[in-house]
């Protein structure tokens, strides 16, 4: 416990020092600092590790809610439409977090090198379809590696040599940790997650088109019934619900980027009916499209925090 507290304290200090400052990037490292809670914000999360050093966040995926705070980490294993918000943050105790983009190539390499050692700590769990999001307490070894990774922001001469090694170590700590089954699927070309991932990528690339579940099952190389079951296990929603969420989030980005023709935006993302688009948009985001876009532009102008990992 003492080591965890020491690592968290240094992680807080490092994030406070480096968040929001310009400088050379270190691998796929992400930092986040904010002094006030945020409203729920929809986004598409890519495979990512997020560690909280101070404060708390909430992530919603379909009907699943994931709360995680100081000393915990969250893993996203595949591109998912999620809603995230800062739950605990204040000027006295700002939210502080860091994250890392997860690499399928690094995970695959570690699995090949390690062999059975990468599975040894999880007996009896290999047959389950892992969820697309998972939360656990961060072990000391993972926190220590994250601290050393963030330190490199202040040591640009060391970063090109040490960052790839620490990145591999972080992936290894995840693979052999409590959420190893979820992380492992990212690097396995023939895993259920990778099969579902092919269908997910097709939906995202063709979100404006009509889809048939049987066609998606064919893309995933599964029967329709198996595909539906595994897709829901990973994403917490059906393929049609996933497509709808992607369409609405893409519409929100278009509106935020400057488009003021709500009907045209709805048509662009695949809606034939402007009224249906506005109705479903309001159901997801709480306000009509035009009103939401104006509010988001105002928030973007007033925002006083650094971008946040998941």
UniProtKB/TrEMBL annotation:
Per UniProt, which keywords does this protein have?
Answer: DNA-binding, Transcription, Transcription regulation
Organism annotation: Planotetraspora mira
Q: Which GO terms describe its molecular function?
A: DNA-binding transcription factor activity; sequence-specific DNA binding
Spell out the InterPro entries in the cross-references.
Homeodomain-like_sf (IPR009057), HTH_AraC (IPR018060), HTH_AraC-typ_CS (IPR018062), Tscrpt_reg_HTH_AraC_N (IPR009594)
* PROSITE patterns in alphabetical order: HTH_ARAC_FAMILY_1, HTH_ARAC_FAMILY_2
Q: Which residues form the HTH araC/xylS-type domain?
A: 197-295
Which Pfam families does this chain map to? AraC_N, HTH_18
This chain's protein is named AraC family transcriptional regulator
